[in-house]
Amino acid sequence: MTVNTENGTRLIHASSLSGFLSHRRLIATGAVLGIALLLIDCGSGSTKAEDPTAPSAPNASVADGFDHVGLQHGDEAGVTAVVTAWDAAWNAGDAAGLAATFVEDAEFINAMGRLFVGAEAIRAQHAITLAGQFKGSHTEGHIRRITFLTGTAAVVDVDNDLTRYEPVAPGSTIMRAVQQSGRHKRLVVKRGGVWRAMLFQNTMVVPTP
């Protein structure tokens, strides 16, 4: 009887161990399957509507006219007219006409680095200089390059030749001509269908010894 009891106990223990091992194998198999499904989902990419998407390219503005920034692409005649109007007003000693070539919120930097903000300030300063040291002077601008930024904005590079007159000696009535060269960097914009200067910087060219 004792032997039989021990054999029965051994059989019960073996059966329990076998079930335990089978249960552990089932858990392990489920874990592996879960990890595999997770990896597959991550690799496939999400197609949910709430996922972020790349922004679409903005539509080109009609006012731009083109999307290329380059030389001589746009209203060259309109831009050239601003340079021509500046020369004509200067040569006539017309400060008001000169200021009319600028937008109201323009900035002007003269050859000495002085800054004038607004068309009225630009007019007032040139009224002084055109009646003073530049009285009777003559200017002629040569457009070196026009770079259109958009259909309504362009940078204009102008090589400028200026002839002014000064006394040969202090108090003398005899005048001599003085040649002066400068380089103008102008940003011109088209507002209300009219081209005008928004930014203007004049750099004096130092004469070659």
List the helices and strands and how they pair.
Blueprint (H helix, E strand, L loop, with lengths): L1 H43 L25 E2 L4 H16 L3 H5 L2 E8 L5 E3 L1 H13 L6 E13 L2 E15 L7 E17 L2 E12 L4
Parallel strand pairs: 2-7
Antiparallel strand pairs: 1-4, 2-3, 4-5, 5-6, 6-7
Please describe what this structure looks like:
This protein folds into 2 domains: 1-42; 70-205, Nuclear Transport Factor 2, Chain: A. The longest helix has 43 residues, at 2-44. It is of the alpha+beta class. The chain is built from 4 helices and 7 strands; from the N terminus they run αβααββαββββ. It has helices at residues 2-44, 76-91, 95-99, 119-131; strands spanning 70-71, 102-109, 115-117, 138-150, 153-167, 175-191, 194-205. Strands 1-4-5-6-7-2-3 form a 7-stranded mixed sheet.
- Rg over CA atoms, rounded to whole Å, is 41 Å
Give me the strand/helix succession.
Answer: HEHHEEHEEEE
Instruction: Please state the overall shape, judged from the principal axes of the Cα atoms.
Output: globular
* Structural class by sheet pairing and helices: alpha+beta
Counting DSSP E segments of at least 2 residues, the number of strands comes to 7
Number of helices, counting only DSSP H or I runs of 4 residues or more: 4
Q: Mean pLDDT, nearest integer?
A: 77
Uncertain runs: 1-18, 20-24, 26-33, 35-40, 42-58
Number of domains: 2
If you consult CATH, what is the topology of the largest domain? Answer: Nuclear Transport Factor 2, Chain: A
- Measured as a percent range, the helix fraction is 25-40%
Distance between the termini: 131 Å
β-strand percent reads 25-35%
List the strand order in the largest sheet: 1-4-5-6-7-2-3
Main β sheet profile: 7 strands, mixed
Q: What's the level 1 CATH class of the largest domain? A: Alpha Beta
Question: What CATH architecture of the largest domain do you see?
Answer: Roll
